[in-house]
Amino acid sequence: MANVTVIGAQWGDEGKGKIVDWLASRADAVVRFQGGHNAGHTLVVGDKVYKLSLLPSGIVTGTLSVIGNGVVLDPWALKAEIEKLEGQGVTIDADNFAVADNCPLILPLHRDLDGLRETAAGAGKIGTTGRGIGPAYEDKVGRRAIRVCDLVHLDQLEPQLDRLCAHHDALRAGFDQPPVDREALLADLREIAPFVLQFAQPVWKRLKKVRKAGAKILFEGAQGVLLDVDHGTYPFVTSSNTVSGTAAAGSGLGPGSTGFVLGIVKAYTTRVGSGPFPTELDDATGQRLGERGHEFGTVTGRQRRCGWFDAVLVRQSCAISGVTGIALTKLDVLDGFDTVRICTGYRLNGKILDYFPSHSAEQAAVEPIYEEMEGWRETTAGARSWAELPAQAIKYIQRVQELIETPVALVSTSPEREDTILVRDPFLD
């Protein structure tokens, strides 16, 4: 049995929640390996809707769910999310949930700094969620982070607080803010520590045992490849690596553990926040896509920008992340269009490009080259086999996989778990 790594192959919001939930029901462990509580998954299970932003999707079915060391953890957000799910009848305890004891913590001072920077940035805003993700990763790399394991040793935290506050007090002074209240921070950490520590452990060790037993592990990515800090639309990116290779470093398992890489791809394109978006439609068609696709962020509630499918971007994402097969989602949103368009290349300063350039000015300047296809009038919503799809919808899917040079493994035709056309089972690779 193969392990499976799920990543978003666009800018996030591709509908990973449903696919991960479907896979999690067949996995023995689900692992988050990067990001924080800045990305959301909406799971629809029967008549219940679960909104997750930090917990792995397996938690709603009782599957062992692990937050790996590559995640930055807001302990207060974790507590709130667990309490909310418990209120919906989900059982969460040390048997089915674990947190890496070497996870860096997101602290109130990180949220403060995130907000102060975005407010001051003006036209240079990146469009962060304001949840402190970036500043927490900065402190991790700057070797001044407070980690989960430090919650056991709060009485010896002074040297780390000295390093942390030397950095943050200088930044806060630049924004005319008072220094960090160290006593208040320590009091907050002492209060939350018992809740977090009940789940804390060296998760690499637990996952090694799971893998040795031959169990199936699902690695659950957050955001999308185009938000990767190295490979995305820098600087309009997240602060972690979102590509599939991060599953190894962010969980404590080796690179051979990632298995089948499933890239989640929306049948059109959306983006939240600032940054380049070559196929964006600022017209009635873009509005129609947004309304039909209910394009509002799970975490922020922000309206997503919408546009036609960009095969150049997805081909690049699949190559960079070693995608084995894609899951095509939200096909039904394209139902009823007379014609549909796919971006097959870009024009930039008189040249034709078959890739997305790295420089932000060039990314903003590229003009999409479109291929137009006949649309379909029939509905694809709820289809569970190829026979239930209109012929033109099948042609669209086939053209997508040709252009992105990656096969379709499954097609999702509604938020319901069972409304899926399975072409290739990732767990049986």
Protein topology:
Blueprint: E1 4-8, H1 16-24, E2 29-32, E3 41-45, E4 48-52, E5 64-67, H2 75-87, E6 97-100, H3 108-121, H4 133-141, H5 158-174, H6 182-197, E7 200-201, H7 203-212, E8 217-220, H8 246-249, E9 260-266, E10 269-271, H9 284-292, E11 305-307, E12 309-310, H10 311-320, E13 325-329, E14 339-348, E15 351-353, H11 360-365, E16 367-374, H12 391-404, E17 408-412, E18 420-422
Parallel strand pairs: 1-8, 1-9, 2-5, 2-8, 5-6, 6-7, 9-13, 12-14, 13-17
Antiparallel strand pairs: 3-4, 10-11, 14-15, 14-16, 17-18
Helix pairs in contact: 2-6, 3-4
Question: Describe it for me?
Answer:
With 429 residues, the protein is an alpha/beta fold. Strands 7-6-5-2-8-1-9-13-17-18 form a 10-stranded mixed β-sheet, sandwiched between helices. Strands 12, 14, 15 and 16 form a 4-stranded mixed β-sheet that branches. The chain has a two-stranded antiparallel ribbon with strand order 3-4. A hairpin with a 7-residue loop joins strand 17 and strand 18 (420-422). The protein is globular and about 65 Å long. Helices cover 31% and strands 19% of the residues. It has helices at 16-24, 75-87, 108-121, 133-141, 158-174, 182-197, 203-212, 246-249, 284-292, 311-320, 360-365, 391-404, and strands at 4-8, 29-32, 41-45, 48-52, 64-67, 97-100, 200-201, 217-220, 260-266, 269-271, 305-307, 309-310, 325-329, 339-348, 351-353, 367-374, 408-412, 420-422.
